[in-house]
Design brief:
Elements lengths: L2 H20 L12 H21 L6 H12 L5 H8 L3 H13 L3 E6 L2 E9 L1 H22 L4 H18 L8
Antiparallel strand pairs: 1-2
Helix pairs in contact: 1-2, 2-6, 3-6, 4-5
């Protein structure tokens, strides 16, 4: 089996596991102590599926989109810095970067301060695809939160940022 086919099979397996986790019945009866965590997990899987569907026409996964978006906001990160930021192994991030390079969406440039380090940058093609992906993601967000009042959306955003800070205090603020 080629490496590309193996990666695709692994991604399908991961997506199947996500769907199974998303299909688990909700707790019944009185609320349980971990019900909020359960609801957040269900929300995560549902939102991830919606995002994957919205990005599919552009040939992007939600992780690839997020990498492009991160490099747009923080140009010059290395693959190692991205792997720490996304909590994946350097090997996994390296494979993702290679796939984005093959599509000419990102390029590696030598760091002038450290000749052994390679910094990542979006290409013009990467910026164009990112803009299309951002439009798709704005559509998902509008579908999810469009019926909420602006003050409720802002309160939810503040709560989520606070939770993000509690779970990952060393990371910069989400958003």
């Amino acid at each position: 089996m080629s490496k590309t086919k193996a990666v695709a099979a692994l991604q399908r397996s991961s997506q199947d596991q996500d769907r199974q986790a998303n299909d688990v019945a909700a707790p019944r009866g009185a609320p349980v102590p971990w019900e909020m965590i359960y609801l957040m997990a269900r929300l995560f899987y549902g939102m991830r599926n919606k995002c994957e569907e919205a990005l599919k026409p552009y040939g992007l996964t939600s992780m690839q989109f997020t990498i492009l978006s991160t490099l747009s906001n923080l140009p010059g990160l290395s693959s190692a810095e991205l792997s720490r930021r996304f909590n994946v192994t350097p090997q996994t991030m390296g494979e993702m970067i290679v796939n984005l390079e093959k599509r000419s969406l990102v390029a590696r440039e030598q760091d002038p301060q450290n000749r052994r380090a390679l910094k990542l940058a979006l290409t013009d093609e990467g910026r164009k695809l990112l803009r299309k992906g951002e439009e798709a993601m704005l559509g998902v967000e509008a579908d999810m939160f469009g019926a909420m009042a602006a003050r409720d959306r802002e309160a939810l955003r503040a709560t989520l940022q606070s939770l993000h800070g509690r779970i990952n205090p060393s990371a910069e603020p989400a958003g």
